[in-house]
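User: Hi! I'm a student and our assignment asks us to look at how structure tokens line up with a sequence. Could you show me two examples?

Assistant: Happy to help. In each example below, the sequence comes first and the structure tokens follow. Example one:
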Amino acid sequence: MSLHRTPANARVYRVALLFHASKVYDREVIAGIGSYVNQTRVAWDLFLEEDFRFRLDGIEDWGGDGIIADFDDPAVSRALSTMGLPVVAVGSSYSDKTLYPAGVPYVATDNQLLIQQAYLHLIEMGLTQFACYSLPESPLNRWAQEREKVFDALMQRDRLTCHIHRGLATSAPTWNSASHQLMGWLKSLPKPVGIIAVTDARARQLLQACIMADIAVPDEVAIVGIDNDTLGQHLTRIQLSSVSQGTEEMGRAAAHLLHQILGGARLKDTRIVVPPAGVQARASSHREAVHGPHVMRALHYIRQYACQGIKTEQVAAHVGLSRSSLETYFRRELQRTVHDEILLYKLQQARSLLDDSQLTGAEVAGRAGFGSVQYLNSVFKRELGCTPREYRERAATAKN
């Protein structure tokens, strides 16, 4: 199907678009390609097969001038690997660079930032427990497994428990068993919890499973998808929060690369990673956060690293504010300084260690980040009116 016609006196290039037109991701990439063609008035005829997989056999005989293709499908990558025509690949970003196709210019969505933005949004909603709903491991789902890896790395970095559920592939025969399996996983998670789904389709399954299991969204389970599928918003009772991929920009970038190649440029090893367009926050994740986003992000960082001796400057750098600005937010919302908050968390950890272990005073001081027994004693006397030993004795007496 031809999408664009150019004047008869221009040199016309015939360009095939090999994408799954039924997928929102692919449709938006195609829209970006079309936008580039119309804005630059390049002399292209675009051809789009509604299901190009039936045309892969013999694609090498296609008599066109160039191809832009979805390389997340391994069959496409294999079929086009020996093409004599210029090919531009569109697909997923990978931390393992060997997973990129060799010798093909490549435009990728940034999986690292997609998950990071979803995670940051859930933190700003006041959540401290997180999970990921992915897809079964498969060559077709390498991009989903890449998003899992990013999520797992974030949980390890922040010393949080990593909950990942791949579930079953979506199909009519497995629908009931997949739903029951998903409900069981949701019930097993600590609450409240924020869940990042690797696609909006997976996020919609979460919403349906929560409704069936009588789990409150977003109070018990807050959900963020990826794709910002506006059509899919009409399929759920609760409006879905989602990270919008930079898909149209990916399409424009891919078209620009092919335009350059058709003009004689040699770009076979070029890689462009396109960042997300941002989080579209809707009802599925919109919890009433106790504090503003800057303070919530700072508190999340302090919970993870207070006992490692972090300073106010490090917290401010993590949040992306100056020290004075962050201090203003803390005094306004918490009526204390960032240093006070770090010290308070370290004190809570020390009390927990004294309650639940037989560690020595020096060991408690080290694990809670006080550095010395003397400093630990000083803080306990000032804040609690007793020494750590006296605190432990009182706690033991209270239990008995």
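Example two works the same way, sequence first and then tokens:
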Amino acid sequence: MDRTTTPDPATSPPDPYAIALLRGGDRAAVTVAVLALHLRGAVDAGRPGTVRRTGPRAAGAVRHPLEKAVRTGLYRPAGPRELPGRAVVRRALAGMRDELVAARLLRTLPPGRTRAARRILADLREHRPMPAERAGPHGLVEEEVLLTVALHGGRALTALLPRFARDSGLTGPGALADEGLFPFGRGGGVRAVAFHGDDTGRAADGGGSGGGAHGGHHHGGFHGGHDFGGGCGGGGFD
């Protein structure tokens, strides 16, 4: 199934995609989807500062509606600023925001996170601190990698998968295609960004209209070893 029932935040916390959206907005949620697809071999860094598909979709590579939208949106490589604005990704993000409003984790007036959302983020951060620099994903199952990046953004991504973070433009200066340096680097669609945040969660709570929390994610182990090159600092696709 592409979509599951939104869990009650009082009994079940949102998934990493919704956590990222609550912390840092649309681009943070898309970062987690890109990372999930990369861990399963469905996307990789393309030309500098872009993400691309790696070939035909393998069975089980896509496990969440936002992942499906991101992979569909990569009909051609995209930089981190462009991808959230592609139509299929915008629609998936709007659906997530709608579900987060329904779950009372986002509000529309004034736009921003609710008290319940702030409490969830604080509780999760307390039990899942920032990883050490260049920690790598050793010993972490996929869901733990995704949740850590959802909570801490680009700094966590750089610590866990520095080479992919750098080459894909998800952190650091990156995003060269979005500066018009490569053909097809810029999209023509209207970009819809719900709100902007930072890696610490001290985001400006500009809201949107809610997003979903989806269950049923894979908890299998992640086997690293291919992505421990030196990273570069934050920014980019948080």
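Here is something you could point out in your write-up. Residues 27 and 204 are 14 Å apart (CA to CA).
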